[in-house]
Structure formats: C-alpha cells, structure tokens
Write a structure and sequence with these properties.
The chain is an alpha+beta fold. 43% of the residues lie in helices and 18% in strands.
Length: 948
Amino acid sequence: MISNRMYFTLEIGVILITCFSLAVVAQFENKRGTDLNYIPSGQFMEKDNPDINYRLPDDLRPDHYDINLRPYLLESDKAKRFTFDGEVFINITVVKRTNKIVLHSKNLKFSKREYCEDIAKPQTCIALKETEPDSKTDIVTYILDGELPANSVYVLHFKYKGSMDNDMHGFYRSSYINSKNETEWLGTTQFQTNHARRAFPSFDEPKFKSTFKVTITRHKSMRTASNTNMVRAASVGDYYEDEYEITPIMSTYLLAFIVSRFNERTDDNGSFGIIARPEYYTQTEYSFDVGQEILEILDKYFDLPFYTLGIDKMQMAAIPDFSAGAMENWGLLTYRERLLLYTEESTTLHVKQQIAAVIAHEQAHQWFGNLVTCDWWSYAWLNEGFARYFQYFATDKVEEEFELDKQFVTEQIQSVMVKDSMNDTNPLSDENTNTPSDLNRMFNSITYNKGATFIRMVRHIMGEEKFQQSLQDQYQNTVPGNLFDIWKKYMHDDEADEFFLTSTTQVGYPVITFNLTSPKTLQISQKRFLLKDNDGSDPTLRYVVPITYTTDSEKDFNNTQPKFFIRPIDANKIVKLNDNASWVLGNIQVTGYYRMNYDEKTWHQIHHALFEDDWSNIPDVNRAQIVDDLFNLARSGTISYDLALDVLEYLETETDYLPWFAALNGYSFLAVRLGTDTSNFASYFRHLSDRAYRKLGFEENENDTTLDIYNREQILNWSCKYGNKECIEKIKGYFGKDLIRNPVPINIRAIVYCAAMREGGNQDFDKLFDKYLSETAATEKTLILNSLGCVKDNGLVNRYFNVIMSDDIRRQDKSSALASLYNENNENVEVVFDLIDSNLEQFVVAMGGYSAAATSITGVASRFTEKSQEEKLKDFNARHRTEFGDAATTLDIAEKIVAENLEWAENKLNTFKNYLESRSKSGSTRASANTIIIYLLGALVLITLLKT
C-alpha cells in the first residue's frame, strides 16, 4: 500500500518537484509533508494502553468466508441510504480446544449470531449470546456453554447492518460530480490494516488467511467489481446479485469491492482493465499501457506470472475519495485519482513518473504482500520494502528516461536518514507492535524507504544475478528469518547473520569516518549517527557495514560490491591503499546505508576536486551524497558549519539535478529556521545557483533529460521565491495570459502558478481558483490546489484557509493544501496558527477529528522560530487540552519539537547567519570595487576621447 502517510510523502513529492516546498522540517520528515491527509506517525498518535491485548488467540482458524452485501446508495433508499445489509458464513477449524469464539467486529449491528456444525441443518446451530466488541480492540468474545474440540469444524453465521461512512475506511461511500452536474455516489473499500471488521465480522489479522466468496446486490444502474471475476449476475427485479469467484487464500485486508457507475478500459480478453468515472475514460490510457508493461517485467523477474497466482484478472480503479495513496487488493488495485489518471496536457512529467511508479509498487505487492504476507505488522517491511524497491527498479525497466535508479538515492535513502537519526525512530522489525497507533507507526518511512534501502544494499552485496535468483527461490517468508535463510545461500559471507540482525532489529545507522593518515593509509571507524545529543537515543549502537570506496588515483565509481565489512568489534580498521591518494570517497553510488565523514584535510581535497572540470568525474549520485552528508554532519555538530559551507561553495559550479535536490533539502531546514529573516540567504542562493539558472532557463529543449526538466523546476521555483527579478517578471508574463487558450508549459506550470500567487492579489487568486473549480484532470487539480497555498498576502491566506475548511476541497486533500499554505512562505506560519486557533471547532470538523487536527497543528508549530510563538502554542494547548482528549499527547509533542528547534537555533543558527552576513558584506565590497573600476575605466575612455 502507498499509505496515507506515504501518500503524504508522495504529495510532498509533488510539492517538492512542482511547488518545491522542500522545507518540511526534520521532526516532520517521516511524513515529508503527506503523505499529506495521512496516517500520522506513532509520535503523533493518541496514547494507547500498552497492557491491552489487541491480538486474537490462535484457538480458531478461518478457512473460508461467504459474504453477501447489499449497499444502499440511491436517494430512493431513503432512511437506509449510506448503510448496507450483510450476511456472512465463516468456515472455521478449531486448532485448540476452547470454550470461546473470539474475532473482530466494529460498528456492526447484528440481527443473528450463531455457530453451526452444519449450516444446512438448523438443528445443529446454536445462538451466540449478545455481546459487544471491546471499544479499544474491536475484539468480541462469545463465551460458549461447552467446549469446541480440537480439529473440529464449524460455520459461524452472522446477519447484520453496517454504515457506509465518509471517513474512507471499511466499506465506505465516496462521491463525484458527473457531466450533468449531478452528484454520483459509490461504495468502495479500504481494509488495511484493520478495517475489514467494519464490513463483516472477521479474523482481521494478516496471518489468518482464508478464501473469500463475495456476492453483492446492486441496483441495475450500477456495476460492481471485486478481487476475482464475476461468475453470475442474477436479476432480481430492479437489482442484480453479482457473485464472484472464490479468491486464493489471502488476508482479510486484501479483500475489496466497488459499487459504482464507473466505466472500464480493458484488453481484448478482459484480463487487464482500468476502472474510473466515465468522464475520465480518456485519462486511463497511460496507466492501461504502462501497467501491462510493468506487470510483464515483474512476471519475468520473479519467473512466476501474475495470472498463475490464483486470480486471472487485474483491475486498477481510480477512487475520488481515498485515504491511502493506493492499495494492493489482490486483483482489484485501488488508487487516488491523481495517481492513476494521466493527460499529456495537464500532467507534469514528474507526476507521470509517480503514476508509473505507484502502479509498479502496487503490482509488486501481488507477490510481496498478497501471495507472501508478513505474519504480523511488526514485519510490514517484508511487504512495503519490496514494493517500494520495485516501485523504482521495475519502473526503471519500462521508463528508463526517468533514471529512477539515481532518484532512489535522494528520494528514498536521504529522506529516511533524517528520521532514523532521531529518538522517535523504530527498527525495521519491531516486536513492539500491538496497538492501532503501533500499526499506523509501522507504515512510515522506516518501513518503506529504509526497507527498500536495505533490500537494495543486499542486492549490491550479492550482485544482481544472485539477488534475482534469491527472490525466485523464496515465496514462503512470513517472518524475516525465512527470507534471511534464503539470502544466506547466495551471500556466503561470514558476517551475514550479524549483518541482517544489526540492520533490521536495531534502530539507526552509522556515520563512517575515513581518516587518510598518509597517502597510502586509511583509518576507518564508525559510530551511530544522531542529529541531537542527549535525546534519549542509544549512541553506543554499532553495525555491520559493507564498505566501498575509491580514490583520486582510481576513480572507479562502478564497482559497488563491498571490499570488506566492518563490524561492531572493529574499533579502527587500517587499510593500505594500492596507490598514493590525495582524496578518498566512500559508499560508492550510495549502495550502503550510512553517512560518510572525512578528516578535515580530505574534506578540503574533495572541495578542490569538485571545482575541477566535470567535478573530477565524481558522479552526480555521489555529489548528492557529499552535499547531503555535509548538511547533516554540520547540523548534528559532527563537523563545523564553517567547514560544511566552505565545501558547499562548489555548488556555484553545479548544474545537475541530484546534487541540487540534496542541496535544497539541506537549505530548506536552515531557511525555515531563519523565519522571516531571509534577505541575506536570498542573495546567497541567487549567487550560488546562477550558473544552473542560466544553463537551464525557462524553455525545454530537445536535449533535456528528465532530470534536467526536474532541475529546471526546482531552480526556477527557488529563484522566484528568493527574489530573482528576471524570474518573477517572466513568470508574470506566463500567468498574465489566458490560461485556457495559452496554457503554461506543463513542467513549469506549478512554478508559474505558485509565483503568481505569491506575487499577486485577489484577481490572480480568483483566476486560479476558478480554474481549480472547473478543472477535470485530477493531476491538474492537485497541482492548482498546492499552488494556491503559495499566497503571501494575509487577506489571501485567510481566504484560502476558509476554502480549505469548505467542501470545495476533499478531506483527503485538506492536509496537503494546508501544508502548502504554511510551507511555501515563512511569513504565513503564525498567521495560519492564529486562524486555526480562531476557528478551532470548524477546523476539527474539516480535518476529520481532533487527532488529525492535532497533527496539522504540529506541522505548523514545527516551523515556529520565535519564543513568543512557543508561548502562543503553550497557551493554546492549555486552553484546549480537555477538548483534544487523547490527542492532547500530540500537542505535547508539538511543544517539545518547538523547544528543540529553538534550542538548536540558539546554539547553531548564528554561525549560518554570520556566514551569510559576511558573504553579503564581501559581495557588497566586490560590487563597490567593481563600480569604482567601471568609473575609472569610463574616465580613462573619456580622457582618451578628449585627447583625440
């Protein structure tokens, strides 16, 4: 699944590449601005009681569900509208003798509960006593009069009613406006991680796999879809009963069904199709084509074709309201509309890339997650890590021009390293996963990004051929040990067991220090990298680390297999180099999960190398690594900011996307901490980026690579944001035209819209907002939505805040829209907080409850830079603690984040400010000197003319 949280990451990805709101601060890094209406990380969840048992006993095993549902979606259904009738038969086997039947149920009202030896013989059925589920765990326990013997089989039978809510969980309702300007309602599902229990009573944990047969009664004007193919559609008056084939053995969270008036684009034999609203049929062509290409790549890679797994069709559906980014339901994959629908005129290249990548992610789950499923959410990385890995490396086989193998480094590795260097991180395999908060926490960047990074690291250790063979060899892993047993057959390294253990059960990662003590002697050491001292993290952790490196005499950046491993017991490893070296670079192509540091002399030698032609042939991936490491080493105090900023001066020669992506992430943190005092930084950035700005320009050309196009977007966005007058004037020229007849070039459209909002007034806002309201392309609507948040005028900030609170914006999009409003301009941060404070009741309703509201407040507060703002937050929390209830713990975390940010700024920000001021003064001195020289030259010319 691309979860709420990870979709928040995808959405911020759009803002990063389109509006480039790169400044989602480190404490909020695991969401990266998300994913974002999103599942908050564990740190932002209400507190659960750790002593409560949320797990079902193993006494019973479900073997098969027969589910019958009738949803009520029509106006003529009157009082029943947005409810459903349900009946389910569950075949169970008694594993251990027991006098209890224990399963999950949530928000269901039962009219019949019974268990039977033979459902065909009513006399064998015994009614279950009326019992309510536990309000925290959703577990309902039926105490029986006698015991059920081991190895016996029974049928559980329930009749019930449920509610189709609009919260995007369980069996819920969604809507859209059709071409006749009428509201169309549909029913759809989102069951991961624990919401199948809202559609039918169930053993709602991933390990309780069974088969499912689904029958849905729907009005003749509607259609249905489910995981498998339909086998029967029986007419009953104005209704049909749609019966579906029995599924393969699978977990409850993978079941799905849709009741709608959607249309389908399908292949000749009906095995592959895209489902969407009829008006969007033309937008399904790209996903239809690329989806089949990626599926074929995965079939060949795993040597196990999808259509042999147990379901002989794949449908991908675009859902108007969807809490997750996308979901891997077996055979019926569901997506937010903007992650499946594409138009050449309205979809940026980067969003096109995201569409292909998310399709690959969900398709990879058909093997990793569906066929082979993690035993419990403690090991969610076995599902999501592999899906995230193939999101990049399967798509790369189809859309090579995206260079996703390179983008993986900046988008996945560097982004997760910030979270994993703080106290609120968690290990990949986290045995402390029980509560709903724990489950939500596991769908974070550790599971996705670090999981994929670990898998990529293993691939480079064993080599691509062996790695592929290992994945073809293993299809039974439900706990990490099953996978590791397979991998060890292909690694043959003495350190394998300890490598797997330290990588997956420990938190964090190391910083590896190279000390070039002589031209031929390299001393290597490691310690855990932490961004903050004394934050409760264990600084003594050590890791098994695969080491790669090259020197200025070798410059071999292709060999990514480790030269050796360093282990926790290795204090200082001494390596003799073959040739004299003036500099050495470690972690080639960033194939290992660690940061690199060097002795100061080597850092300066690297600095000099970066100023040479072609950056001394150091590839863009490793230049991006150098940039990212410098920012974070300085932020943590491992090296001085003076050293880091000195080396970073090389950026005035840099024109490639990946190093600038890493740089803008690093500068974002500092720019946020500067608050509204950014004039010196603006001058500094304009100078540093001038060569890139001049090279890239505004217009695309035929020689542009994909990464050139992306780089143009980010450089232009920052140039306009930080006062490049030429940039701003050109942007105004684009926006001043008729946006329908003269559309802005698609790949700079977000930059133009954002800059126009930042520089414009009410008339400009009206122009763009009207386009949002009339727009039919989902990708363009999302782009406009985030661009509207670039407004800077207080009146427009107020106005857009009210739009976010209204029904004009879907709940799934409100978080990202709000984030753009305070991320894009530091001046808006306190204004937005005050608006929330003044409109709290409306805000809570709009965001979907106090938990979501508290998470958004934490996002705003994470950008506070003044003591007075901290006091304002404390006052707010004191006044509203009772209202927020359990979610008040999130507000407490917000206070902690603000305090830590202010402390960091007090201790370290002045170094950066002084550097900027000194640079500004020297720039003024240079400008004055240049002016004097010009005057002198002019005087000399005049004297010469007079003499003649």
